[in-house]
Design a protein that fits this description.
The protein is mainly alpha-helical and 132 residues long. The protein has helices at 3-27, 30-39, 43-61, 67-90, 95-123. The protein has one domain. The protein contains five helices and no strands. Helix 1 (3-27) runs antiparallel to helix 3 (43-61). It is elongated.
């Protein structure tokens, strides 16, 4: 599979996941509010994460975003997803609650690696090859 197609597929899927969760966070969906309270987090943290997820997803998909901002978005997502998994473990939640953040973590790490691969190819002066 072409690295560029792989990158955009994984990054698009991940960004949609983050935008979906941001929507739930920002609209105050009752199950989300209850989950944040169960984990011991205040409502303002849910709103803060919702805004951060929207900004991070935008940073990953818009091509004109400076690389340094994109790198910060990747770092922020990794920290958020690892923290979410740890929070669920510390709260004694079932494995099903822990899997979601870990799946998203795999996707964001795959996106990051595919992006690095694509940029390394471009900076080495090699154009991606298309096989017929």
């Amino acid at each position: 599979m072409n690295a560029k197609i792989g990158y955009w597929t994984v990054t698009g899927l991940f960004s949609l996941m983050m935008l979906g969760s941001a929507f739930a966070y920002l609209t105050g969906a009752p199950p989300i509010v209850a989950a944040f309270h169960h984990l011991g987090y205040p409502d303002y943290f849910r709103v803060l994460l919702g805004i951060a997820k929207v900004l991070g997803a935008i940073a990953l998909v818009l091509p004109f975003v400076p690389s340094v901002l994109r790198e910060w978005a990747y770092a922020g997502f990794v920290i958020t997803l690892v923290s979410a998994a740890i929070s669920h473990v510390a709260s004694g939640d079932a494995v099903g609650q822990i899997v979601g953040p870990l799946v998203a973590l795999v996707l964001v790490l795959a996106s990051y690696q595919l992006r690095r691969h694509e940029h390394a190819s471009m900076s080495a002066g090699t154009a991606p090859t298309v096989k017929a």
